[in-house]
């Protein structure tokens, strides 16, 4: 009945009036609004799309695309059997795409090179619960695999694009970016644990473990190795291997997991409650004229 309305669903994050909510200082939502609507110079399919925002210093809200597949943590809890090596590579590939955009504005179209004047945003809170899934844009992904977006930018920050990075300051400057990489590696490791715990053997484990390890390794390689170029090289190198591997060993996700990406998680009853509550907009009650 509400099929058309359901297609228009968006997600809303809001902060209650700050006076009524003294424990919350509003900074997280403010950060997120800033990152998604002001700091990032361009949209990207791997970053949650923000539609609209409001902030009068008292009430804040942000609307974004509603991701029908939910977050990756919930997905994995519900469908551990859907986690294959190929899917882990795919997820890793898409996380790397997202980070390359955030950090440097680098993408396939500009040959993975840093965009001039990019503000070098970092996410600050990469974990499975902040990676959301949706159905893939048709023809642009792999088989029935989902598309992933980085979301929940409450901990993110960036450096002014105009700021000259002192050579000796590289480590501090990029330490948050390195932590994003490390956390991305951790998230992939958690997926790997699901695969192993589920009793399946890892035929190609060494390549996968090696690929994941590199995300964390940059953290301990020492200050001299950490530079913009180093991070970008790591991301693009990982993407080349990940793309090869996800295609080589592709196996479709089971039907239940694939269907959940587009499942109607908001029932007709929920929508009726939201849009037809009491008051002047209420739906006329049948039989009560
Ligand atoms: N755009 C979205 N589409 C679908 N589900 C979303 C979206 N944004 C948030 N959610 C879901 O809503 C819930 C609350 O998300 P939110 O990011 O506000 O808080 P949180 O993730 O619980 O908090 P935190 O990450 O700060 O610990 C989560 O279960 C999340 O998966
Ligand atoms: Mg979250």
TrEMBL record:
GO molecular function, one term: ATP binding
Keyword ATP-binding found: yes
Keywords: ATP-binding, Kinase, Nucleotide-binding, Transferase
Coiled-coil ranges per UniProt: none
SMART domains: S_TKc
Superkingdom in the source lineage: Eukaryota
Protein kinase domain mapped to chain residues: 1-261
EC number of this enzyme: 2.7.11.1
InterPro entries per record: Kinase-like_dom_sf, NEK_Ser/Thr_kinase, Prot_kinase_dom
Enzymatic class: transferase
PANTHER family to which the protein is assigned, alphabetical: SERINE/THREONINE-PROTEIN KINASE NEK, SERINE_THREONINE-PROTEIN KINASE NEK2
Name under which the protein is recorded: non-specific serine/threonine protein kinase
Annotated organism of origin: Oleoguttula mirabilis
Lineage, highest ranks first: Eukaryota, Fungi, Dikarya, Ascomycota, Pezizomycotina
